[in-house]
Design goal:
This protein has about 350 residues and is of the alpha/beta class. The protein is about 40% helix and about 15% strand. The chain binds nicotinamide-adenine-dinucleotide.
Length: about 350
């Protein structure tokens, strides 16, 4: 199949591109490199083989039309979007505009060209703060920040389109906490500035870029008082998209799947696992809880196991080892990453 990945140069998109190429698909990437770099395209090429890539905004209908004219697209995986929760609280319009307009323009172009299959990147954040883990797809939703609302709104857009258009298929994947990197060390997560997420933070402490890890709260009602999350290796997550595309070939309408391991680890357990796996020490300090954080978040993964035939296979040690391998090989991340940052600096 010819599969278009919007945001395909990003962290999850690049790993998914590799898995799809390995499965024999043609991959076409549309990315505006707002949070990635063109260098990633050549790295995907090195790991997996040839792909096509366009420097374009998925919200630009004319540019999307050009891509659909050039390639006979069979299905779309829509990764494009901004993802920083704290930034979304400070700049909500930036998030609503980009995350909604990129999906809507993509859907309009798909409709114009008769493409009826989309896989959408959603997030465990849509379970909000009032549910108790494990979270299953039938639970109620709610959000505490604009980023989360954009995901829920996009889910609603897809639900309504699937109702209105016979033959349309939308598979919504709610990711838990993707971590790790490709085992080649050529692809990985490249956050800008001080990382928001635990694993990249630990990596930067291990490399000496940051002095100490801040752990936000050790008084949660959990086994050691620190927050529990469901960490999933990005390569397992990428393989979940391959399964979702197979599922979409045989089903119509909209379906939601959690992609996690179903197992929760505390912050301290992740720190210890990273130290053990890599023989390094991670100094840390306990600081105040972060507003909006829940004590425990992990997935009920039975639906993805039964219906998609997908299960995460990699361990926490694998995640820690691959994350560190990536960090050591790419201490400064990718070259020229993050167009917005470069523009903001007048570069
Ligand atoms: N990483 C996570 O923890 C996580 C968790 C849940 C959901 N998600 C969602 O998964 C998707 C991929 O996440 P990621 O971690 O790979 O993020 P990422 O920032 O690494 O990748 C997103 C990519 O989309 C591109 N992009 C953004 N807006 C665009 C636009 N309008 N047109 C074209 N390209 C655009 C960026 O340049 C980037 O390459 C996002 O939608 C994110 O919200 C991520």
């Amino acid at each position: 199949m010819n599969i278009l990945l919007t945001g395909g140069a990003g962290y999850i998109g690049s790993h998914t591109a590799v898995e799809l190429i390995n499965e024999g698909h043609e991959v076409i990437v549309v990315d505006n490199y707002s949070n990635s770099s063109p260098e990633i395209i050549s790295r995907i090429g090195k790991v997996a083989g040839r792909l096509a890539a366009y420097d374009a905004d998925a919200g630009d209908e004319e540019k999307m039309r050009q891509v659909f004219l050039k390639h006979k697209i069979d299905a779309v995986v829509h990764f494009a979007g901004y993802k920083a929760v704290a930034e979304s609280v400070q700049q909500p319009l930036k998030y609503y505009e980009n995350n909604l307009s990129s999906l809507i323009a993509t859907l309009k172009t798909m409709k114009a060209f008769g493409v009826d299959t989309i896989i959408f990147s959603s997030s465990a954040t849509v379970y909000g703060t009032s549910q108790t883990a494990p979270f299953d797809e039938g639970m109620g939703t709610g959000c505490t920040n604009p980023y989360g609302w954009t995901k829920l709104m996009c889910e609603q857009v897809l639900r309504d389109v699937a109702k209105a258009e016979t033959g349309f298929t939308a598979v919504i994947l709610r990711y838990f906490n993707p971590v790790g990197a490709h085992e080649s060390g050529l692809l990985g997560e490249d956050p800008k500035g001080i990382p928001n997420n635990l694993m990249p933070y630990i990596q930067q402490v291990a490399s000496g870029k940051l002095g100490k890890l801040s752990i936000f709260g050790n008084d949660y009602d959990t086994k050691d008082g620190t927050g529990i999350r469901d960490y999933i290796h990005v390569v397992d997550l990428a393989k979940g998209h391959v399964k979702a595309l197979q599922y979409a070939q045989e089903h119509r309408g909209m379906e939601v799947f959690n992609l996690g391991t179903g197992k929760g680890y505390s912050v301290l357990e992740v720190v210890r696992a990273f130290e053990r796996a890599n023989g390094v020490e991670i100094p840390y300090q306990i600081t105040a809880r972060r507003k909006g954080d829940v004590a425990e978040s992990y997935a009920d993964v039975s639906k993805a196991q039964v219906v998609l035939g997908w299960k995460a296979g990699k361990t926490l040690e694998d995640m820690c080892r691959d994350a560190w391998n990536w960090q050591k090989q790419n201490p400064e991340g990718y070259k020229n990453s993050g167009r917005m940052q470069r523009q903001a600096k007048g570069l």
